[in-house]
């Protein structure tokens, strides 16, 4: 990402802003394994359900029982016959949704807003904010970050509330289409 220097992930302090930046780095380089490892479990399930729901009429998807397929995809089962198509569609979706922000060299606002237990809403902007500028007036994207049991911050959503599993899943951030490729 142009102009963005972030510390090595293993030696960096565990901050939600850095967790979001690492996630974006993996999106930028097309590393689905890196993205998926930094995505919170409920969001992973919702993305898998969204892929299945939107492609439910495709024979390759319809051949599976959808609950088991969603669990396999969300769980990162690389042996699943649809894993590669799901990974490709997800990376394409995220690159489309976050491409402009990635290209701008996103800057984190170093404040955050607590959203329940172990969750924080942070904001990444395409430009460094001016001193005293309100975070909610800036262009950019919010990231809902979840502190997991291993002490790492993972992306849990892209607004102030998490996704909800279901058929179809619901979330304020599910505006893109995870289409069969």
In words, what does this structure look like?
- The chain is of the alpha+beta class.
- 38% of the residues lie in helices and 13% in strands.
- Strands 1, 2, 3, 4 and 5 form a five-stranded antiparallel sheet that branches.
- Helix 3 packs across helix 5 (66-74).
- The longest helix is centred in the middle third of the chain and has 21 residues, at 83-103.
- The chain is elongated, with a radius of gyration of 16 Å.
- 35% of the residues are buried.
Low-confidence stretches: 175-181
Straight-line N-to-C gap: 26 Å
Q: What fraction of residues sit in β-strands?
A: 5-15%
Whole-number count of domains: 1
* Morphology call: elongated
Q: TL;DR of this structure?
A:
It contains 6 helices and 5 strands.
List keywords for this structure.
elongated, alpha+beta, about 180 residues
What is the topology?
Elements: H1 16-29, H2 32-37, H3 41-54, H4 59-62, H5 66-74, H6 83-103, E1 107-108, E2 113-114, E3 119-125, E4 141-147, E5 153-157
Antiparallel strand pairs: 1-3, 2-3, 3-4, 4-5
